[in-house]
Amino acid sequence: MKHAFTVDLEDWYQGVPIAQAKRATAERRLHIGTERLLTLLQSNNAKATFFALGSIAREHPRLLRAISDAGHDIGSHGLSHDLLYEMTPERFREETRSSVKDLAHCIGRDVRSYRAAYFSITRRSLWALDILAAEGIKFDSSIFPVKNWRYGIPDYSRRPIVVTTASGPILEFPLSTRRVLGRNIPVTGGAYFRIYPWLLTRANIHAAEREGLPVVFYLHPWELDPDHPVVLFKAKAMATHYVNLRSTERKLARLLAEFRFTTLGEVLTDAFPGLGS
Ligand SMILES: [Zn+2]
User: Fold this and answer.
1) How much distance in Å is there from the Cα of 12 to the middle of ligand 1?
2) pLDDT tens across 155-187, in order?
3) Where are the domains of the chain?
4) Nearest to residue 80, comparing CAs of 55, 110, 112?
């Protein structure tokens, strides 16, 4: 079974709650983790979807084109990395349009995949799917069917589904969960991948395969760059940002050696033939 490998393409300081002024002067290290990741993907014959912030097109155009030219899919991770459920629909539409346009212009291909910052499509921001469909997005992976302090729709579909919007269908791949004692727990990705022992991640993916469910894995380049600067911010967010960074590369090599991965769009198109193209 082929699973989806996804990357939220942002630098280490872009997804953490620090002041704008600090971000402006933060050390740029995006290429370090991204190059390690591209090498690992290539040596394991895996393809991925990279959800890039719109600013990457301006700040790192050569890196973005290199990812696209290596056969990976470029999707959008929005513009500001702010929470969707705190935006107005108008602002969300503008940010989506701007990031999709800049990314598409940079790589010379359409951008059809999307992931919200902090998985922030929740009950309060489900309207975002209509706007995404209207802006040309076919594949979304922004809804986490868990209960988390920052995100989640605990009773959302655990399987990929077709969401019908006023602007047409959009294929949603909810972040992967496993049923344990009547609750959904995250299968793998990001901090969960770093916190869980490898054997738990492996068992979770095998459990999904037994259910006939492909998994959507996710990672950030800075998770392969354990020497990125340590800055202080909200304790709850810090705990998940810095934990077990040195374990990522070793676990990732095992993950890619054992399971097959491709882009989000390919897994969703296989699941719903005729709808993705
Ligand atoms: Zn992000």
Assistant:
1) 9
2) 999 999 999 999 999 999 999 999 999 999 999
3) 2-271
4) 55
